[in-house]
Amino acid sequence: xxxxxxxxxTGVFDMLHVGHLNILRSAKxxxxxxxxxxxxxxxxxxxxxxxxxxxFSERLEMVAALQCVDMVVPxxxxxxxAAWENYKFDAMFVGDDWKGNELFIEVEKRLxxxxxxxxYFPYTKNTSSTxxxxxxxxx
Length: 139
Description:
The protein is an alpha/beta fold. The protein has helices spanning 18-30, 41-48, 56-64, 80-87, 102-113, 129-138, and strands spanning 4-11, 31-39, 71-75, 91-95, 117-121. The chain has one domain: 3-Layer(aba) Sandwich (Rossmann fold), CATH 3.40.50.620. A five-stranded parallel β-sheet has the order 3-2-1-4-5, with helices on both faces. α1 (18-30) links the parallel β1 and β2. It is globular, with a radius of gyration of 15 Å. The N and C termini lie far apart (47 Å).
């Protein structure tokens, strides 16, 4: 039996790579139903200052095709509490590169009050869409 009923995680998932798979697989191992929020192009540009290489509709489709993902939803903002109000997950999975971030400290407090656990997974070292983008720029 899995520890959580509904799990939730989010990401850009630009240039899908093994780090993304590690988090999604680890999340699914702990919950019966995994919901994944895929950041829209507009949201990514707003908070990262650059557009993803792969368009939103394609990123959404790729994440939806993964066996470990039960449902994909657009992430139109970074309000995790609003996401909880919509999906009523009992666990939120996050890469540990966000641990200690002001946004997540506050989110974690609010979600904990609702009985939601925030679980941090180890960030896959040496693999990220940013690193891939930098390597492509060298070619």
